[in-house]
Amino acid sequence: MSRFPVEDIRNFSIIAHVDHGKSTLADRLLELTGTIDKTQKNKQVLDKLQVERERGITVKAQTASLFYSFGGKQYLLNLIDTPGHVDFSYEVSRSLSACQGVLLVVDANEGIQAQTVANFFLAFEAQLSVIPVINKIDLKNADPERVGKQIEKVFDIPSEECIKISAKLGTNIDSVLQAVIERIPPPKVHRENPLKALVFDSTFDQYRGVIANIALFDGVVSKGDKIVSAHTKKTYEVNEVGILNPNEQPTHKLYAGQVGFLIAGMKDVTEAQIGDTLYLHNHPVEPLPGFKSAKPMVFAGVYPIDQSEYNNLKSAIEKLTLNDSSVTVHRDSSLALGAGWSICHWLWRLPWPHAVLGIQIWGPYAQTVSTIPSQPFSQALKIHFCELGFLGLLHMEVFNQRLEQEYNASVILTTPTVPYKAVLSSAKLIKEYKEKEITIINPAQFPDKSKVTEYLEPVVLGTVITPTEYTGKIMALCQARRAIQKNMTFIDENRVMLKYLFPLNEIVVDFYDSLKSLSSGYASFDYEDAGYQTAELIKMDILLNGNIVEELVTVVHREKAYTVGKGICERLKDSLPRQLFEIAIQAAVGSKVIARETYGGDITRKMKLLKRQSEGKKKLRKVGNIEIPKDAFIKVLKTQPNK
Ligand SMILES: Nc1nc2c(ncn2[C@@H]2O[C@H](COP(=O)(O)OP(=O)(O)OP(=O)(O)O)[C@@H](O)[C@H]2O)c(=O)[nH]1
What we know:
alpha+beta, eight-stranded antiparallel β-sheet, six-stranded mixed β-sheet, 28% helix, binds guanosine-5'-triphosphate, GTP-binding, LepA_CTD
């Protein structure tokens, strides 16, 4: 690695809207530089995760070092592939911190999309050189001239600077590599200074422990060096360093300006914080600024399907969050089960009185009972779960899929919620929470209106880019989601860019799907955090035969209470098994019932039971003898309340 002086190194990323061809371009760059074999028919080599290959998307940024000869010199080009989806822009900005320039890939047919705009500004704000690349020029409908003009209009980059390529056919890939060398500056680093390395990513390997991806800002690191983590102050001996080519390839040393991996006996997942600075023992340095921690936008409870698997799930989550640090574990909690509902959730085949006598049940129920851990009964009646924060819904789904595929953990995710806030007026509550403004993630903790000055909800600034013919429908959709229009710009004669301020809650579940379906898939969407706004929020209870079902308490905007309440009641009705007697399912705000479904009451069977009815019915109603299937509760929580 010493062959490469700093001026012969380029660190760059590829950024683009989803599906515009980043990974395909990365494959071609890898082939052209001989990093991978052309004949292997490699496809998306950098998409290593199973979920990435299945979904055809990149969720995790990957790094590869390429060697390229140009003008009689060999260059070391470090390519960092990044995800394109809105939920993963956190990975994008992390990747950018290790780069000096980017290739901004735009589809020659689709043109600039919402994520193109978002990604461009991430790079622009980081003061990186931007090389526009118009891809897919082989497509029948490709119009690179039009896209070039869009780039000039929206990003102020002269259209002559655009490189027109077909990543699929390998057309003009050479010009891309040459532009990387000519237009991106080498990193500004000092090899003679003591080591200063940024951990910009890390993964956990069962056998080798933590593998950190590092970018060296100063100095040199070699196998055998003693290094210190600025974050934990722990000292380690470096076992292995090397480059990613794209698989790990050990080298003797890594020098400032280079990017590679490092293994140093970090066993615990908490030891390799992304954003940490590593330095040599006895040569402390000023740590690099690190990264802002990712801000979760949606929260969801994660339950193991089998409660006895809870500890395994917890450790799988710990490992996966090391690799995907944008997931925050908000709460590792347990919900004490009170009402008959919850007990039935556990012992769903048993009617309530049996559950009370739970420990003494034998015979046909023995199987069910044995799923209760051998703890005191009160302990057994707890559902253990983790509440996790995600950057968005796709992020949540991908995390779930990765837990299953990479860690063999089967989980159930509940409907996502957003973090609301309340400004407290009650002195007692302020004392209890030790602050005036509290964030509410668990709806059960939503303070009563009489105890607050105001409620606040998170808002985002959304960008929609669409062909003009769908503008009317999209505006109506945005309005129905309580959004406020901020701006409207034509990016060419056929496309318009709309900016709206959205309550996050209104877009978090199904907005993207609705937008796609009413624009036949042509509109694109992206959003950025825009703080909080005052909102008329209310807490809504769901009652079964007059008993509040704790797990289904939700916070909704006053305007949406009826729709959401009705939806939950209907879904609950559909999820419960047939009942002999009538049960009321109600949605209520305070003491006011706003939606109601009546359910059950099988007439023929009822007739037969008429004689016994009166007493029995009363008893059953009183104790809420509802046999609730295990998945009913989950179905209701899982299904999207806004639909
Ligand atoms: N016709 C044509 N298709 C292309 C070209 N480049 C990529 N594609 C196709 O476009 C689709 C998306 O390409 P990817 O490389 O996966 O796109 P990406 O931007 O990496 O997508 P994400 O990883 O999901 O963000 C694939 O079906 C590619 O085969 C091209 O130059 N021409």
